[in-house]
Amino acid sequence: xxxxxxxxxxxxxxxxxxxxxxxxxxxxxxxxxxxxxxxxxxxxxxxxxxxxxxxxxxxxxxxxxxxxxxxxxxxxxxxxxxxxxxxxxxxxxxxxxxxxxxxxxxxxxxxxxxxxxxxxxxxxxxxxxxxxxxxxxxxxxxxxxxxxxxxxxxxxxxxxxxxxxxxxxxxxxxxxxxxxxxxxxxxxxxxxxxxxxxxxxxxxxxxxxxxxxxxxxxxxxxxxxxxxxxxxxxxxxxxxxxxxxxxxxxxxxxxxxxxxxxxxxxxxxxxxxxxxx
Length: 277
Prior knowledge:
Elements: H1 3-20, H2 27-46, H3 49-58, H4 63-75, H5 79-91, H6 96-119, H7 122-132, H8 140-153, H9 157-170, H10 175-185, H11 193-205, H12 209-222, H13 227-261
Helix pairs in contact: 1-2, 2-3, 3-4, 4-5, 5-6, 6-7, 7-8, 8-9, 9-10, 10-11, 11-12, 11-13, 12-13
């Protein structure tokens, strides 16, 4: 049996179940079931994600409804998100053979979109990056970084900064991401405490602790109880103190080397005393 036929049967079963559960003798019981039937139809036949959400709200935790929602995401060219929903359906007891086949198909589409995301500029590249996004995937940080670069190239600096901040959460040691955050946050008109904290953390990654300290103090002036800013400030202060000690030691070593080279640094214009008979 093909996946298409199985999907059609699944939809039919869902609709029958929704109808069968209605209570004709109880006027107040029929309306929610009619709403569920309509939501399932709009989700599966009209690709309306809001209807999928409505159906899940009426019948939470139903793996068949999750599969229907994921199928809709695939039809809407959002295979990355679809894979995540399919996996949720598996965790809730959906039939593995059917769902794994759907995941494999969605993954093929996702890989094709990732290639477009990586190689294509402009809106086409952005759409591909958004469609390929799979929350929790190993490449999620790379995808946000690429999306941020495309947004920045398009002049959408606020959106680019948001994407870089997400990339920083996923790729905390990436210096390119840190440099982009510093550059874009420097132009923010009225940065809040969260943005100042992110800027301070980025400066710290770039080994600029003195600047990080100043920025993080500004963040704490706006939000004194912000734990992330407090933590980053402590790290920056330790890094600054360590750097100052290293600079002092290097200066002392350089001074000692210069002193040794010049014979101790003692000079005199007085000639040595001579004796004659």
